[in-house]
Every structure is written in structure tokens, then in C-alpha cells.
Amino acid sequence: MAPDSPVYVGTCGFSYPEWIDAGIYPPGTKSAQMLGRYRQLFPVVELNYTWYQMVRAETVERMLAGDGSTLLYCAKLTRTMTHEIADDWQAQADLYCRGIEPLSASGRLLGVLVQLPPFFRRTPENRSYLARLFDALHPLPLAVEFRHRSWALDSVFKGLAERRITLVSVDGPPLPELFPALDVVTNPDLFYLRLHGRNSQGWRSGSKQQQFDYDYTEDELRQWSRDRIPNMRAACHAGVILFNNHVAGQAVRNAQTMSRLLR
Amino acid sequence: MERKIVHLNIADFSVAVERLLDNTLKGKPLIIADPSPRAVVFDMSDEAYGDGVRKGMLLNAARLRCRSAIVLPPRPEQYRNALNRCLDHALHYTPLVERSSGNGHLYLDVTGTHRLFGPAPDIGWRLRNTLRRDLGLDPIWSVAPNKLVAKVASRLVKPRGEYIVGGGEETSFLAPLSLDLLPGVGRADLIRLQHVNIRRVQQAAALSVQQLSVLCDHRARLLYQAVRGIDLSPVRPDGPPGSEFRHQHLFSPDTNQETVVRAAVATLAQQAGHALRQRHLGCRRVAVTLLYSDGVAVVRQAVAKTPVNDDPALQQLALAALYRGWHRRVRLRQIGTTCSLVQHPVQQLSLFAAIDLRRQKNKRISEAFDAIRARCGQDKILRGCQQPLHGGID
After folding, report:
1. Which residues of B touch A18 (CB under 8 A)?
2. Which of A148, B73, B125, B332 gives the lowest tally of CB atoms within 10 Å of its CB?
3. From A14, which residue of chain B is nearest by alpha-carbon distance?
4. What does pTM read for this prediction?
């Protein structure tokens, strides 16, 4: 591992009509053209739509066919395994593994994000479920993001390290229940940082437009680029940094600043 | 700006509502049909569908295929209420909400709402969660740049799921699919295309309008656009909830006699007019649904420039719609009318005395009919164009 291991900076999602209003994409850009435009801005993207709907191989193949050949991907795990755990979640996990296969086979899948909701606390049932979920998704490159602070325990980090699963570092508003901002590395293959913005008022509003409405200052970003990322980078072969504060294109501008700070 | 249409489809809508009203029906095969011997299947559950029951099938035949099925009579009022409650939730996101055929389909045009509510898939997901939590219904949802593609996407994941198709992906999304998934492509079109071994959308998409017109005549342009995912039709809000009026008549025996069919249309128009006038409303669109003996269903509609509610005007609209869709010699089993685009009738008073006397007269006669029927009963007075009909009218 080297301090200059590659770090890829991008955003969570790329298909936002408001990014046309914000001047990120030219006027008249259609959804199908957005990925092509995005590729000119960043080397990595986190796929959001895979959270809303089960990923399908034919959709992924269409996407790969139209994106050139260099863009790297992270993909969210579908909500039926994280937020709305279905009775047939094991079948869902099989479907997901099959659907993501073309991306996996292309060698451009950096990580599968298992984003767990705030109400998913550390209970015996949830621990057991998580262990079974990880088994069902093996050997996908998993990264797990907790939203509840009950998971911020050394024993959890140790368990993840044993499985070589990445603990997602998060930057969010300073709310007592939220998982804290840590730079713990549990997988030497990848560190994964998600920056949601620090909008404390909007976080619990129930509206994503308020929850992720935040513009990081350069000083706030420097806290990561100077104080934390170097350590994570030194402990990993690669890293991804993704901005989720998509409202009004703030994520794009902040990601560009972060890229500059890391150079 | 790229259009964003959210389509919600509550699969087997009437069955879903019946199961909401009676929990014990969950998991059991269910057929919705009038209990009369010549009734046809209105809707059925997945279990009954699995046994071969289909919409429009004779109830007796359906019972033979699924002997364990519970048969319930349709309760249109309950279904309408449930759909109106869905509509109320949908209206939270956009005023442009269209109810399609009253069978559990809602289209929302959420174009330009992203700053308020976020991305369109998020609206679909939230709305589905709301309906599940508040009403116990679990709709399929899809997001697409138009109604046609959204409906195909929903069909792909039926009976539950979701599908997102981005703007510009319409053609590649539809290309590998079977042609029978496209709304508006009828059985006759499919058969003609199959004669030249065209079964997939991408095969039909390779043909020009001229080539398609050899196979499908005047429907070539429509087909040409459909296989490319082109659908410019707007989402048409229907007005206030509960503003769709449906009536239907079951012929006994099946018939293709024009006088009998016209008489049925006249009676249905009179019923629709009565319902509209009671509420001081008028409608601009009348759709006629024809169900043939062999199960083929055809829907055609006619639209007026201004809202109407007197019987002759409604009858004219219904007849126009009827003759647009009635081209087969096969006998008809059922006919239905749906009055939509319901509004309060607006009467622009003329500065001069050029009042439409005929219309005024029709209006007064219709009101007189209503008064007599209110006092003496619905079947005590008929217009000359009507015939006393044997068989039920809803």
C-alpha cells in the first residue's frame, strides 16, 4: 500500500434534471446522455437507481455499451435488502448478483454499497441478518454504510475486517443518533467516503431536496483531504470519495474542489 | 424539458380492493363477475389467472377452469372510492394526474417538479409507500418519458415491482420486447405482423411507415411511433375525484343487430345523462367499450368541444364512438359507456338572440324525463329510440 494509491472522486448519482438548471449539463440534455456528460467530469459514479429498482443485466449492458470504457462504478444495493427487507430477500440477493454481473465482469465495479437506514440498529436479529446478507452477496466487493451510531464499535469493525468488507466513512450533520465520521479502514482493497452535507435542519425533513442541500466550504473539505484521507489512502490500494449533496449541483462543485485538494 | 411520467398500476385492482374490504379473501382464487348465468369475468386474482381464467370469459367457463374460485359481484362504487383515495395522494405531487379506464392505473406528469420533490423515481417510490401504508395497496410503479413507455415498463414487472426508463432510452428499452406488450397494438395488427414473422419491437422498428402501411393500413403511423416509444399524448387530468361515469349492458343473447345495439347505446346515454344532470355536471368525452362473444374488447371514444349532459347529445357522442370501433361481424356480448372529462357545463350567453333552440328543447325534455323517472321509476318512460332491454344494466 502506498500513500499515492489512486483515489477516485465523484458523486452519488448522475441523473438529476436540476443539474441542467445548475449549468452542470447543457440545456436539453436527455437522461440517456447524462452519463456521457458525467464521464467528462469524474472518473467514478455511484449508481442510485439500483436502490430504487432491482438491477437488471440488460440495463447494465446497455449502460456499459454507451459510456465509453473508462468510467468506474459503485452501485447501491436494492432497498428490498436494506430499507424494506422483503421476505424473499435471499432471492433478491441472487437477482442482484445476476443483474450486476456484467458490471462485475467488466472489471469496473469498485464497490456495492449496502446502505442501511437509521432505524437499522445493532440488535441480535439485525446482526444475524447482516451476516447472512453478506454471505448471500459474496463475492461482490461490499461496502457497508451504517446510519445509526450503535454500530460504531470495534467489534463491528473487526468483523468487517475479517470479511474484507469496507466500512463506509461518512460526513453528515452532527446529530446525536447518526453514525459518526470515522476514518477506520476495514478493507485494504478499498476505502469509501460519502459526504452527505451537514444540513442538520433538513436531515429529518423527509425531503431529499432539503436533506442533501448543503454546500461544503473549502475548509470543511480540507479537514478530510489533509487530516484523514492520507491515512486511509496509506492503508488501502484504492479509494472512492462520493458527494451526495446533489441539490443544485453542489455535489459536482464540491467534488471538483476535493479533486483539486487531493492533487 | 424532458418529460417525466410516473405510472402507478395496482394489479388486479378490483381484486385488490375486495381483499382490502375482506381480509379472508387473501391468497384465495377470486373471480369478479355478476352472478347471472351469462355474465362475463370482470377481473380475477392471480390464482384464478393461473388456472386459466381470463377477463371477458363467460363465468360458467371460468368456473370450470377454477372450481375453487370465490365469485363476487363487481362493486364499481367501492373501486371508484379506492381509486379516488389513490388520486388524492397523487395530487400531492402534481395536479396533472390521469386515471386510465378506472382500473387501477394512474399517470402523473411530474415534469419540472424535481426542485420540490426530488427525482421522479423518488416520487414513484414515496407514492407507492404512501399507498401501501395508508390504503394497503401495493402498486407497480414506473418512470418514463411518456405514458406509452411507462405502461410497457409496468407490464414488464407485473404483478409487483418498479422500472425506470430514462429519456432517450425509449428505443433501446423497447427493442428486444415482444410486440404484444405495446399498448394500442391490437390483435389484428399482431396477426398481420406475425404473418411476415415480425414478433419483436426491433423487427417492426426496422420498417418504414410505407412498409408498415402495407401490413397495417391506416394504423401504420401509430405503429411506427409506438415501436419507437414515441407518445406525445399529454396526461389529462379528469377533474374532481369521482367524475367518471360508467354504465354497461350485457346482451342476452349476444347480438350483432344494429337496432338492438343502438337501443342499448340510447339507454346507456340516458343513464349517463341522468347521473350527470343530478350532479349539475357535463362531460366532453364518451368512450364506448365493446366486448365481442370471442372475448375481443374494443374501446373507442368521441369528444365534444363543450361539456354536454342532455340525452341526445350524449347519445350522438356514444354513437360516434360506437361506429368508430364496431367493424366486426362477430356478435356483441357487452357494451359499456364511460363519460369522462367531466366539468361543470359552461353556457356562454349570446349578446344576440341566436340561441340554439333545439338544444334548449332537448335540455327541457331531458329534465322532464328526469322528473318523471324520479317520481314513477326509471323504466316507466322511454324515448322512441330506446327499447325495453332484457338483461341487466348497471
Report:
1. 114-115
2. B73
3. B119
4. 0.76
